[in-house]
Amino acid sequence: MTESSVDANFQVSRQKLIFCGDVGVGKTSIINSLMGQKFSDDIESTVGVDFFSKTIRYKERMIKLQIWDSAGLEKFRSLIPNYIRGSSLIFLIFDITNKTSFDNIPAWIKFITDVDNSGTIILVGNKIDLKEKRIVEKEMAEKFSQENKYEYFEVSAKEGNNIENMMYKSIAGLPVFKKINGEIFDKDTIYKDIMKENMDTFRYQRNNLLNHTGNNIMNTDPTNISNLADLSNNYGINKNGLLTNQTKKKRKCLC
Fold first, then answer.
1. What is the C-alpha separation between 10 and 4, in angstroms, rounded?
2. Distance between CA 135 and CA 144 in Å, rounded?
3. Distances from the Cα of 178 to the Cα of 122, 166, 189, 199, angstroms
4. Rounded Cα–Cα distance for residues 29 and 36 (Å)
5. Which of 5, 74, 88, 165 is the most buried (most CB within 10 A)?
6. What per-residue confidence (pLDDT) applies to 102?
7. 167, 114 Cβ separation under 8 angstroms
8. Residue 157: count of CB within 10 angstroms of its CB
9. Contacts of 169 (CB under 8 A, 6+ apart)
10. What is the mean pLDDT for each group of 10 consecutive residues in the chain (255 residues)?
11. 55 has which bridge partners?
């Protein structure tokens, strides 16, 4: 049974998520990207476990994501089971430029499932921006994921590629979203609805983004995050589609 609580009116749900994997694979950087923070090459290794909180909306409900960032160093491994227990989603991260981090995935899976096998494990290959240094081929990771029945995503924490897609597609599979007011929804529909309802929580208030003619510039598919990159250096948005610091002072940001 995952740690998920809903109030008497079924308006608020809390979902526990944890990021695991070897040291240096980019767990903290992925979380920082989700939280709308700027990428840095100087992030120190997590000591113990760090906590982040993010709230999203879905069909007039608030879902509070409790995000735990675990240390990859062996000496902190004994702390992690306390946070794995009751997790709805376990994001297991490896570095596509580091074969050892991928080879250690089976050991991590055993470690996680020995503690609590009720949560859903999501396999994530990070640092796809480092194409020339790639060692773990996509086909290899996909084969492992398919054989073990895990969903697999490839992301770049540095460039922000596929980060929100990874998070929200994974969240869309949680039981809390599947049935509301007696109506059952499929995962793809849930994912698209979550994306539409939460664009401003990880990007910007798109309703305030008008071009020089006064028309809203977001006239493309709101579920297609790649469109946001086209707004780089315009309207106070950086290359990752995130608000610049100057723009944040002028617009309400729910990051």
1. 12
2. 15
3. 19, 18, 10, 21
4. 10
5. 88
6. 98
7. no
8. 25
9. 151, 153, 187, 191
10. 44 86 91 76 57 85 88 71 92 97 97 94 96 97 97 94 92 83 84 85 38 35 38 37 43 31
11. 64
Assess contact for 157 and 33: CB atoms under 8 A.
yes
| Three-class DSSP category at 225 | helix
Count, residues in the chain: 255
Which residue, chain included where needed, has tokens 């002028």? 250
Comparing CA positions, the residue from 163, 151, 89 lying closest to residue 126 is 163
Domain boundaries, the chain: 4-177, 198-248
Residues 69, 51: Cα–Cα separation, whole Å: 6
Handedness of CA 169, 93, 52, 203 (dihedral sign): negative
CA trace torsion 117, 96, 203, 165 (10° rounding)? -50
Q: What is the pLDDT of residue 200?
A: 66
Residue type, 134: R
Q: What are phi and psi of 29, to 5 degrees?
A: -65, -35
Q: Please state, in angstroms and rounded to a whole number, the distance separating the CA atoms of residues 165 and 84.
A: 23
Please, is 101 exposed, middle or buried when counting C-beta atoms within 10 Å of its C-beta (0-12, 13-18, 19+)? buried
Cα separation, 193 vs 172, whole angstroms: 9
| HSE toward the beta carbon, residue 251, CA cutoff 13 A | 23
pLDDT of 38 reads 72
Question: Which helix H or strand E contains 247, and what residues bound it?
Answer: helix 245-248
Task: List, as own/partner pairs, every contact residues 178-186 make where C-beta atoms lie below 8 angstroms and the sequence separation is at least 24, other chains included.
Answer: 180/59, 180/61
